[in-house]
Amino acid sequence: DAGVIQSPRHEVTEMGQEVTLRCKPISGHDYLFWYRQTMMRGLELLIYFNNNVPIDDSGMPEDRFSAKMPNASFSTLKIQPSEPRDSAVYFCASSPRHGGNQPQHFGDGTRLSIL
Amino acid sequence: AQRVTQPEKLLSVFKGAPVELKCNYSYSGSPELFWYVQYSRQRLQLLLRHISRESIKGFTADLNKGETSFHLKKPFAQEEDSAMYYCALRTGGGADGLTFGKGTHLIIQP
Fold it and tell me: CB–CB of B32 and A100 under 8 A?
């Protein structure tokens, strides 16, 4: 198993542009999480899904951010329009159906730079 | 709201010396605590979890509810232990998202 796969690994774009980050969870995992990592705030949960349904999006910073999970093997995180303060590393993680203390498996992250 | 505090951004110790990475949390319920590690150029991965009471790569961590702490310890540090270490808390009994500390960069000097 290749683990959680994220693309692209790096993204550099100008402010105002739409940015789409992609994630493929581990097959069979029911939960998918999006995190953002910055120097100032560390790792923060943005949103998570269970069986493709968003459960908690309270961490999504603004309406400019949206996330979807159209099927069990794919999720996107979109920023439109992007701003320089959105520059961060965005991680996707997945975990099996809950059974208490199931670990989350992380992807390599997408390093996003908004100029 | 829950919070995880790792007071040390950077910790440098010599090879063979004991290591303790501090983690304190604030949460009114029964937390689930984890330590995640990120080695250079690798992805974040689970190191250990409190419910398992296990020792992984010589590391242990004990949940102290009285002190609301979950410090990570190893009696003899090895150079390959150099990495970023994150303490994390989950509040729900299921698969709720994790609340992370800001991490401690552990450097083991030869």
Answer: yes
- At B9, phi and psi to the nearest 5? -75, -35
Per residue of chain A (115 residues), give pLDDT as tens.
689 999 999 999 999 999 999 999 999 999 999 999 998 888 999 999 999 999 989 899 889 999 999 999 999 999 999 999 999 999 999 998 755 567 889 999 999 999 9
Q: Where are the beta strands (DSSP E) in chain A?
A: 5-7, 10-13, 19-24, 31-38, 42-50, 53-56, 65-71, 74-79, 88-95, 105-106, 110-114
Q: What gap in Å lies between CA A64 and CA A69, rounded to an integer?
A: 17
Interface test with B, best of A1, A30, A43, A105 (most B CBs within 10 A): A43
- Look at A103 and B34 and tell me if their CB atoms are within 8 Å: yes
The answer to whether A95 and A105 are in contact (CB under 8 A) is: yes
The dihedral through the CA atoms of B30, A50, A30, B35 has a sign that is negative
Tokens of A6: 């994220």
Of B32, B97, B99, the CB nearest to A101: B32
